[in-house]
C-alpha cells in the first residue's frame, strides 16, 4: 500500500470518528456539560502523555498560553452546545446544521484578521442560508435543537479562525493540550456554579465510562494527532475537503445505529445536500480561481 493511499484511509477513518462523536453524545446518558468535562479530562491526559513521549515543547510564554486557553473555553462551550443539540433533537439535525460552520468562519475570518470579505464566500454563505431555510421549514419540531446546533457551529467557526493565530507559531498538539486544560477548568467552574458538581459529575454508569473513554481517547486525542500527522503527506485542501464529509458519515452511522428515530423529511435532506454542496463547491472554485 502506497503512503498516499494509506494516509487517505487514515484521514477518512478520522473523519468517521468525528462523525461518531455525535452518536456517542446520544448514547451517553450524562448531561452535555458533564460529558464534555470528562472528554476534556481524558483528552488532556492522553495529549500530555503524547507530548512527554514525543518531547514536544510546551514552554511558549505565559501570554501565549493565556490566549490559547481563552480559545479553549470557546472549544468547551462549542462541544457542550453540540452534545446538547444532539440530546434535544437528534444526530441528523445536529450534523446537518453543523455543516454551516464554514459560513460562520467565512465571515469571522475577515473581521478577526481585518481582511476584505471575499464575494465568493458571501455567495457560498447565501447557498448555506438557503439550505438552512429548507431544514427550518420542514423540521420545525426540532427548532430548539437547530438553534443550539447553529450556536455550536458559530463557536466552531470562531475557534477554528482563532486557532489560525497560533498554528504557525506553536505545535498543534501543544495548542490543543492547553485548550483541553482551560476547557476542563472552565467547565468545572460552570458545574460548581450551577451546583451539580458534587452530585452528578462523578456518577457515570459503567456503559457511560466505556463510551466516554472512546470519546476522549479515540474521537478526540487520537483523531487530532492523526489529523495533524497525515498533513505531512496530504495537502491542507485535501484534509479540509475530507473533514466536510463528517455530517455524511455521521448521518449514515445514525441511521445504522438508531434506525427510524433518525428518519427525517425530504426537505431536510435537500437542505443538507444544498449545504454540503456549497461547502464542497467553495474550495473547488477557490482553487480554480488561483490557477
Can you put this structure into words, describing what you see?
By secondary structure, the chain is mostly helical. The chain has one domain. Helix content is 80%, strand content 0%. The protein is built from 13 helices and no strands. α2 runs antiparallel to α8.
- N- to C-terminal separation? 31 Å
- The H-and-E topology, N to C, reads as HHHHHHHHHHHHH
Structure annotation, total helices = 13
Total beta strands: 0
Mean pLDDT: 82
How helical, in percent, are the residues? over 70%
Largest sheet: none
pLDDT < 50 runs, ≥5 residues? none
Note the beta-strand portion.
Answer: under 5%
Morphology: globular
Radius of gyration from the CA trace?
19 Å
Structural class: mainly alpha
**Number of structural units classed as domains:** 1
Short description:
This protein has one domain (3-290). 80% of the residues lie in helices and 0% in strands. The protein contains 13 helices and no strands.
Secondary structure topology:
Layout lengths: L2 H25 L4 H23 L7 H27 L2 H8 L2 H13 L5 H20 L4 H21 L8 H22 L3 H4 L5 H24 L6 H8 L2 H13 L7 H25 L1
Helix pairs in contact: 1-3, 1-10, 1-12, 2-3, 2-8, 2-10, 3-4, 3-7, 3-8, 4-7, 4-12, 5-6, 5-7, 6-13
What labels would you give this structure?
291 residues, mainly alpha, 13 helices, 0% strand
Amino acid at each position: 500500500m502506497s503512503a498516499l493511499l494509506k494516509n487517505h484511509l487514515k484521514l477518512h477513518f478520522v473523519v468517521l470518528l468525528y462523525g461518531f462523536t455525535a452518536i456517542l453524545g446520544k448514547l451517553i446518558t450524562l448531561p452535555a456539560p458533564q460529558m464534555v468535562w470528562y472528554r476534556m479530562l481524558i483528552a488532556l491526559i492522553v495529549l500530555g502523555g503524547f507530548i512527554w513521549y514525543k518531547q514536544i515543547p510546551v514552554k511558549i510564554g505565559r501570554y501565549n498560553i493565556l490566549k490559547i486557553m481563552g480559545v479553549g473555553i470557546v472549544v468547551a462551550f462549542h462541544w457542550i452546545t453540540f452534545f446538547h443539540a444532539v440530546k434535544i433533537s437528534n444526530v441528523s439535525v445536529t450534523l446537518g446544521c453543523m455543516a454551516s460552520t464554514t459560513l460562520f468562519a467565512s465571515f469571522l475570518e475577515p473581521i478577526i484578521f481585518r481582511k476584505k470579505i471575499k464575494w465568493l464566500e458571501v455567495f457560498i454563505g447565501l447557498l448555506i442560508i438557503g439550505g438552512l431555510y429548507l431544514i427550518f421549514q420542514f423540521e420545525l419540531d426540532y427548532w430548539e435543537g437547530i438553534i443550539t446546533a447553529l450556536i455550536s457551529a458559530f463557536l466552531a467557526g470562531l475557534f477554528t479562525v482563532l486557532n489560525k493565530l497560533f498554528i504557525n507559531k506553536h505545535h498543534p498538539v501543544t495548542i490543543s493540550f492547553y485548550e483541553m486544560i482551560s476547557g476542563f477548568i472552565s467547565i468545572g467552574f460552570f458545574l460548581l456554579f450551577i451546583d451539580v458538581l458534587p452530585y452528578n459529575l462523578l456518577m457515570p454508569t459503567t456503559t457511560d465510562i466505556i463510551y466516554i473513554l472512546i470519546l476522549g481517547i479515540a474521537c478526540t486525542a487520537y483523531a487530532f494527532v492523526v489529523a495533524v500527522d497525515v498533513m505531512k503527506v496530504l495537502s491542507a485542501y485535501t484534509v479540509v475537503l475530507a473533514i466536510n464529509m463528517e455530517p455524511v458519515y455521521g448521518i449514515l452511522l445514525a441511521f445504522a445505529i438508531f434506525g427510524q428515530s433518525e428518519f427525517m423529511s425530504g426537505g431536510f435532506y435537500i437542505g443538507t445536500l444544498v449545504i454540503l454542496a456549497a461547502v464542497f463547491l467553495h474550495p473547488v472554485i477557490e482553487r480554480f480561481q488561483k490557477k
